[in-house]
Amino acid sequence: MKAFFSLIAILFITNSNAQKFDCSSTITTYQELFQARNIADAYDTWSLVRKNCPKQSEIVYTDGILILQYKIDNAANAEEKESLVRDLMKLYDQYNKNFPSTTTDFEVYKAMALHDNKMEATDEILSLLDNAFSRASDSITNANAIYTYFSLCHEKYKAGNQKFNAELVLDKYTLVNAMLSNLQNTNPDKANEYRTAQRGINSLAKDLTTCDNLATYYENKYQLNSDNNDWILGALTNLGDRCSAKPIFNKMAQNFYATKATSQSAYFMALASLKQKNFEEAIKFYSQSADLEANPQARAKIYYTLATGLLFGDKAKSKESLNKALQYDPTLGSAYLFLAELYANAADECGKTDFEKKAIKYLALQTAKKAIVAEPKMKAAADKVVERLASKSPSQAEINKEKMNGKSLTIGCWINETITFPAK
C-alpha cells in the first residue's frame, strides 16, 4: 500500500510539473531568440520545448530543423557537425512519430540531411532513400532527392554491384522519370527544378538507356503492366521520339490510345505512324493531338511541327497550320520566319509578272519583320532574312513605275494574301 501511494505521488508531481511548463510562451521565446541570432539560448529553450511539448505543434519540428541546421552550418569541427546531423535525423524520427500523416517521406529528409551536409555515409543514404521510395514515392517532391536516389543506384551499377543490375536500375529509371514527369504537371511553379533533375538523370543513364535496351526492358515488362496506364505513359515517354520506331512503342501507343483519345495518346500514335512511314495517319494523329491539347502554347507547337514537317510539301496546308500555330501562340516568332520562307520560295510559282514575283518577296519581308515583334530574341535571325529579302523586293522606283504607291495587290495561288505598298 505504501508503494502504491508513493507511485501516486510521483505521478502527481510529474503531471503538476508538466502543467507548469507553458509550451506556447516558450515557443514564442525561442523564436524571438532565434530571430535575434541568439542561437545558443534559442537552442537551449527549443530543446526544452522538444522534450516537454512533443505533440504541441509541427512548428516545434519545423523550427527545430532550422535551428539545428544553423548550428550544423556553424559547427566548430567535424565531430560536432556529425553529432548535430545525427540529432537532426533523430528529430525527423520524432517528427514522424508525433505527426505521421504529414511526414510519410521523413526518411528522404533524413537521407538528405546526411547528403546535403556532406556526411560520408553513402550506403546509409541509399538505404534510407530506398526505403522511402519503396514505401512513400507518392509523397516525395524533392527534385534533388529524386536525382540523388537514381545517381546512387547508377553508381552502384557502374561499380559492378550485383544487386544493382541493369534491370533493377532501369526499374529505378522508369520510376523516377515517371515521378518527375508527374511533378512537372502537378507543381508547375517548380517545373524547372524537375526538368533539370530529369535531364541529369537522362544524362547519367545514357549508357544504359539505349533504344535496344529500353525496348527489350519494356517488352519484358509489358504483359505485367498492360493495364497500367501510368506505367505505359512512363514507358512511352522514356522511349520518346528517338526510339519510337521500335515495335513495342507502337504496341504500347495503340494500347494507350485505345484506353482514351487524349492529346498525349494521339501524339504517341502520330510518332508511331511517322516511324512506320504511314504519313497520312501521322498527320491525322498530330492534328487530333493539337485539337485535344488544352495548353495554347503546346497546341501551337504541334501545329508548327506539322507545318514544318509532314505538311511541308503542301504549301497551302503548311501555311494553314502555321496560322493556327500563331493563333494559339502569337509570340511564336519561328512560325513567322518559316511562313516568310514559304512565301519567298513561291515567288516564281505564284507570281505572273516580274513585279508580282518581287511583290511576293516583299510580302515575305514584311512577314519576317513580324517575327521580331512577336519574339524579340529572334531579332538577329530575323534581321538576316529581312536583309536578304530587301534586296529582292521591289524598289521605290519600281513601285512608282507600276503606279502602286499606297495601293494593294492581291496574290492568288495558295498564298491568297493582299500586299499593300507604301505611299511615296
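(the above was protein one; protein two follows)
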Amino acid sequence: MGGTGSVVIYTVAVGTYTAATQAVADALAQDDVNKNGQAYANAGTNGSCSFKNVAKSGSFTKNNCGVGGTGSVVIYTVAAGTYTAATQAVADASAQDDVNKNGQAYANAGTNGSCSFKNVAKSGSFTKNNCGVGGTGSVVIYTVAAGKYTASTQAAADALAQDDVNKNGQAYANAGTNGSCTYKSTKSSYFVRNNCDTAGGMGSSVEYSATATSNISQADADAKAWADVNNNGQNFANIRGKCELETQVFHFRGNGQGSYIVYIDRYGDEVTSELSNWGVGPCGAIVAVSIIKIFNGSACSGGEEVEPGGGE
C-alpha cells in the first residue's frame, strides 16, 4: 500500500503467431499482449515498486538564546514524498532521520525560533504623601516580582518592570493600609508640687512635657499628649519639685573683688553668690534659710534689700 509500480514492456516477438492474413496474425499477437502483459509486469522481478515517505515532524526548542532567555518551540517537518525507497518503512525512516539530524539546527537558525526573557525583580521606595496636615508618611516598598513581564531581550523585560515601579509605586504607597501616617505632638504645662509637709511649706512650680504619636490624626496625637500631661504632670511635679523652707533676710556687703557668700536657699539647696558686684557701699539682702560661709564680706544692717546675682 502506497507503493508505485515501475513501467514494464511486454513484447510478443515477430513471428510468434501465423495466420491466413497479416491482420489476423497481428491481432493474435496484440491479443497476447492484452491478456498477458499486466501479469508479466507483476510477476517476479520483471517490475519494481517504489514508496515515498509520509510527512514526518518533530518539535524542537530553540536553545541558543542568551543567558536568561527561553527559546520557543519550533516544528520541523519533512514533507510527504521527499524520500523514495523500495519499501514504505525505508522511505519513512529516511524522513525521520532527516528530522532527527536537522530539526534542532533549524529551530536555532535565523528567525525560525524566537527567544523570550522574563524580568528580574524590581523594587522602589516610596513615601506615603497623602497624610493629613501634620502627618508624616511611612516609606513603602513597591515590588514587581521576577517573571511578571516577558520581552524579546532581558533589557526590555527589565525596563517594563521598572516602568511599572515608576508608574505605580507612589499610588501603591498612598492606597489603603499599604503605608501609614504618623502624627506627632508635644504638649507641656506647669504643675505646683502639692505634697510638701507643713514644715516644708509651699511647693515649687515644675514644667512637665509629653510627646505622643498617632497613626490616626494630628488631633488624636494632641489628645494623647494632653492626656499624658494631665495624667502624669502632677506626680512628676511632686517628685521633681521642691518644697520651700522657712527663711529670713540676711544683710551683707562685699569688701572688694572676690567677695562671696554660701547659703541655703528656701528649697534647701546650697547656693554660692558673689558679693563683689555690690561694691563697698550699702548692704544687700539675701533671703536664706541659713548662712554657711562668707568670704571677704561682712554682715550689715539696714540698707536696700537687693538679692545678689546667683541667688534665688
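Reviewer note on protein two: The helical segments are 22-42, 88-108, 154-174, 218-240.
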